[in-house]
Structures are given as structure tokens and as C-alpha cells.
Design brief:
Bound molecules: nicotinamide-adenine-dinucleotide
Shape: globular
CATH architecture of one domain: 3-Layer(aba) Sandwich
Number of helices: 10
Radius of gyration: 21 Å
Structural class: alpha/beta
Strand order of the largest sheet: 5-4-6-7-10
């Protein structure tokens, strides 16, 4: 007689980013295939400057996720000494290429390059990261056609808890232009009451302990501990930090001390496997949206071309 196999009980506190990401990608894949059939196959070009090894894992995950979503993915690697003018010229060529529907800049860039200058040079209709000043401005108006990926992903995970966002007390720790500030705007649009904390906040825990939900995007492992959050609160951990353990091995962890926070929180995102996979799924969703918008833009200027007759 064989023993019955009992599956391990599911940990209902964990917000499973891999499952949410897979669900979002399935919807994007269907639309990517429809666009490809109409001659507008989504194609993402990723620009990496300098240390290829550091970003390799990240880029490999993006490529795999893109390919399983029917999105072509091209990686362009530039040496660390490439000038800003050369990179701006490369971006101008990608903007002008109708086969390229989305452009992403891998960070960090070498110190002699202004990330802001490059991001601003990407055509807003190809800005699939949602970080062009026009895209960032649009979120103030709650126009989220192509929102900033990480922030949209983090808020999506909070929505998955089923907590109503209207009137919810939320604390956002970290106020960077690409993560913390956009999260605060997205949450305000949903009706949440938002407090933004940062490195100059006098007493972080006074704020975090009041909140029904805490977002943390700082880049400091162990910054948020279980005694800093209200029992039952949702904790969305956006941090990605590589730490070296006593035995010399390395691990990727978030900004929360997972064990103590898991005990107290009502919901928690693991790192890895939380915000990260949803961010990639939102990026790919934006890539499909970008292709659709470019198709509409082209057709409004030149009329509807015959199927398969895309220039
Ligand atoms: P950043 O360095 O631009 O900003 C850090 C923020 O943390 C600032 O607002 C700063 O004021 C605040 N801060 C610093 N020390 C603090 C303290 N002791 N208490 C409270 N606030 C403090 O960082 P970023 O680009 O916003 O990234 C933050 C983290 O999110 C990093 O770990 C990064 O790797 C990660 N990240 C993850 C994703 C993803 O897809 N999951 C995407 C982007 C960034």
C-alpha cells in the first residue's frame, strides 16, 4: 500500500509574485500574438553599458520571460567607456526603427553617463519602463497606459490582498524618483492615505507601526523588522540586496527581516519571488501596450496598411 501524499499547507501570508507574474504574462502573450499577426510583433531592445556580468542574471530572466510571452528580445552590450553621445545616437536609431517597439536601459550605468538624459531620449511611445519624464508626469494624472514597472507591480501585489485601498493607511519607505515617489502617487490615485518616509524621517517606526500596509524600497537588508509593523499589516518588500553569509555563500534578500516580519504581517512578499517577477510581467505588458499604441499611431497617420505590409 502506498502512503497518501499530503501537499504542504499553502502559506496564505505569502504574496506569490511568480504566480501573479505568470497570470499577467499569459494575458500579454495573447495580445502579443494578435499584434504579430497584424504585422506589429512586439520587440524589446535592452541596452547594457559596462559590467555585463553584474546584470547577466537579471537580463537572462527578462529574456526568458519575454520569449515565453511571444516578445522578441535583443540584448545590446556596450563597453564601459562608451560616451553619452554614442549612447544617445544609438537610442535615436532605435527610436527611428519601426521594428523596435520597446527600449529598456539596464541599471546601473557607468558614472560618466546621465541615466536621466538617456531615459529622456527614449521616445515616450517606446518607454516601456515607464520612466520617461512624460510617463512619470502621466501618473500624476492617473494615466497608467505605461506606468513605471516596479511601482505598478508593487501596488498590484497590494491589490491582490483584497484590502480595499480607499482610506487605507499606507507607509512608503524610500522616496526615489523611480520607485518610492511613483508608488505614493499610484496609491493616492486609489484613495489611500499615504505617508512617505526616507533617510531624513526622524522616527520611522512611529509611522510604520500605524500602517495597514508598508512598502519598503531602500536597499538596506533588515531595515524593517517585525516590531516595526502592525499585526496583520501587508508588507511589500521591493529591496534587492546581495548579502554574503558566514559560510561565504551569497544570497539575495529584501529590505525586510523576513523571519520576524512574516510572524507579524498579514501578508508579505518574499525576496526573491515577490515584486521582481511581477515587475518583469508589467514590463512585458507595457511592451505589448507600446506596440499597440505605435500601431494605432501609424494607422492614424498613414491609414490601415494591408495585413503583412508593414513598412
Ligand atoms: P535609491 O537609492 O534611489 O533610494 C533609496 C531611498 O531610501 C531614498 O529615498 C532614501 O531616502 C531612502 N533611505 C535610505 N536610507 C534610509 C533609512 N535608513 N530609512 C528610511 N529610508 C531610507 O534606491 P531605489 O532605486 O529606489 O531602490 C531601492 C531598492 O529597491 C534597492 O534595493 C533596489 O535594488 C530595489 N529595486 C527593486 C526593483 C524590483 O523590481 N524589485 C526595481 C528597482 C529597485
Amino acid at each position: 500500500m502506498t502512503a497518501a501524499i499530503h501537499p504542504l499547507p499553502r502559506d496564505h501570508k505569502i504574496l506569490d509574485g511568480k504566480a501573479v507574474g505568470a497570470e499577467l504574462r499569459a494575458a500579454s502573450k495573447a495580445e502579443a500574438e494578435r499584434l504579430a499577426a497584424a504585422g506589429w510583433a512586439p520587440r524589446l531592445v535592452s541596452i547594457l553599458v559596462g559590467d555585463v556580468a553584474a546584470a547577466e542574471l537579471y537580463v537572462r530572466n527578462q529574456r526568458r520571460a519575454a520569449e515565453t510571452t511571444a516578445i522578441a528580445f535583443d540584448q545590446r552590450n556596450y563597453p564601459a567607456e562608451t560616451t553619452q553621445a554614442e549612447l544617445l545616437a544609438a537610442i535615436a536609431a532605435l527610436n527611428a526603427d519601426p521594428r523596435v517597439t520597446g527600449i529598456i536601459l539596464q541599471r546601473p550605468l557607468p558614472p560618466h553617463i546621465s541615466v536621466r538624459a538617456l531615459q529622456s531620449a527614449i521616445h515616450p511611445l517606446k518607454d516601456v519602463e515607464g520612466l520617461h519624464p512624460a510617463s512619470i508626469g502621466n501618473i500624476v494624472y492617473n494615466d497608467l497606459q505605461m506606468g513605471p514597472c516596479t511601482s505598478v507591480a508593487a501596488v498590484e501585489l497590494l491589490k491582490r490582498t483584497g484590502l480595499g485601498l480607499q482610506g487605507l493607511e499606507v507607509v512608503v519607505i524610500g522616496h526615489s524618483e523611480i520607485v518610492g515617489k511613483p508608488i505614493a502617487f499610484l496609491l493616492m490615485s486609489e484613495g489611500a492615505t499615504v505617508t512617505v518616509c526616507h533617510h531624513m524621517t526622524r522616527n520611522l517606526r512611529v509611522h510604520s507601526r500605524q500602517a495597514d500596509a508598508v512598502f519598503v524600497a531602500v536597499g538596506k537588508p533588515g531595515l524593517v523588522t517585525g516590531d516595526m509593523i502592525k499585526p496583520g499589516a501587508a508588507l511589500i518588500d521591493i529591496g534587492i540586496n546581495q548579502v554574503t553569509l558566514d559560510d561565504g555563500t551569497t544570497r539575495v534578500v529584501g529590505d525586510a527581516d523576513y523571519a520576524s516580519c512574516h510572524e507579524v504581517a498579514g501578508w508579505i512578499t518574499p525576496v526573491p519571488g515577490g515584486v521582481g517577477p511581477v515587475t518583469v510581467a508589467i514590463l512585458l505588458g507595457n511592451t505589448v501596450t507600446a506596440a499597440r499604441l505605435q500601431k494605432a499611431h501609424y494607422e492614424s497617420a498613414f491609414g490601415d496598411p494591408l495585413p503583412g505590409r508593414r513598412p
